[in-house]
Amino acid sequence: MYVIYYSIFLRWATDFNILRNLYDLGVLVDLMKLQIVSGDTGLEMHFTKASRQRATYSSPRNPNKLVLVSLCGKVVRDKIVEAVRKASVYSVLADETVDISGKDQLSIGVRFCDKQRIVHEKFLGYTKLSAMDSKTIAGAINSFLKEKDHDYSKCVGQGYDFCFTMAGKVNGVQGILRNISTKALFFIVHAIDSI
Length: 195
Description:
Strand content: 15-25%
CATH topology of the largest domain: Nucleotidyltransferase, domain 5
Oligomer: single chain
Radius of gyration: 21 Å
Structural class: alpha/beta
Order of helices and strands: HHHHEEEHEHHE
Helix content: 25-40%
Distance between the termini: 17 Å
Number of domains: 2
Number of strands: 5
Largest sheet: 5 strands, mixed
Strand order of the largest sheet: 3-2-1-4-5
């Protein structure tokens, strides 16, 4: 959870094909060792017992690594969604992109204030796009937010780039979603780096 929350990459030394020394096992293993040294007897017992059974789930070659990362990601995302639910208002942020395999996708994030009036901007996830037109993109955002059970009556902003597909007042994404949430004003976002 710590590594995901603070955006620390889960890399093992072998992932980089570098072995600086025999003790360099990567961020995740180092954090687990730190946790054990700090007195986490449950984790220490797991590694002591599991290492005899050869099932610690800490190997870079472990196929369960992606499952563990996905589960941790879900926990973090659920905490963000819960924080957004507690906020009085929020804005949706989105940017269309193409992944490494050439498939269209949409990155979706939220911006909200907590009870201490601290502004948070958080990445929620990616969703695949079947097309790059405004109806498809607006439908993807709508479906994504409904899936996460966001209350549209609290949505007061939309942040996208200024391309016509996103920014069009009538047929653009902002126009379509404004029909769903009339309070959701459109703001131009030049770069959504932090989500």
